[in-house]
């Protein structure tokens, strides 16, 4: 587990400044949702926490360590993308174990971790299938499984449910909440869906035009708009 601290972070693309001094404190084990209109900077902030996007100014810490110059693979995080980003020519099991394989983790340990994650996500019977043989919800679970096997302190979710139909989205919301309660990890979760934010977050960060507009618990925010 780990806290995440974003301190006065700015971001420029060329001459265009898209983030103007964003600060957010995320406590150990908290489920924090970043919301706000398209283009407000949610994905950019998430990608900066992941290390996929360099920050122009300010500081980001994970678990008390400044990570500004730390490669994504050396941060204690795992990211789940909207597009799932599964390898089409690898099975479910291979997709889930791949990051560990690259790290040189022994085969027996990979198998054990994949089996454990598959049990949590109800994927045990699908380990030999290929992504194209799965439903949208199953693909989403594989993407989460791939993150879980790495046992990160912080999970980063980038609009993970936006490719799913409405009914499945509601079911997956509950699943992700349960996963959080079970693993007790820190989660930073980007969505443009206010209901998702309301139902899932311990704390909501409302962004607008590259700034933090409001931060608070769901009821505090939406009782006093
Ligand atoms: P959100 O996730 O809230 O929709 P983004 O973080 O994707 O917003 O984008 C924030 C702002 O940064 C937008 O104005 C977007 O156009 C701009 N932006 C994002 N990525 C790039 C990029 N690679 N180059 C230039 N501008 C970018
Ligand atoms: P989403 O809103 O689903 O997060 P976007 O369509 O905003 O995705 O962005 C997709 C990719 O394009 C991201 O990698 C983002 O950094 C990049 N991007 C977004 N806006 C711009 C922009 N104005 N110029 C260049 N790249 C951009």
TrEMBL record:
CC annotations in GO: ATP-binding cassette (ABC) transporter complex, substrate-binding subunit-containing
Native source species: Amaricoccus macauensis
Covered residues, full protein: 1 to 225 of 353
GO MF annotation, one: ATP hydrolysis activity
A GO BP entry: carbohydrate transport
UniProt entry keywords in alphabetical sequence: ATP-binding, Nucleotide-binding, Sugar transport, Transport
Record domain ABC transporter: where: 4-225
Keyword Manganese: no
Domain of life of the source: Bacteria
Name this protein carries in UniProt: Multiple sugar transport system ATP-binding protein
Family: Belongs to the ABC transporter superfamily.
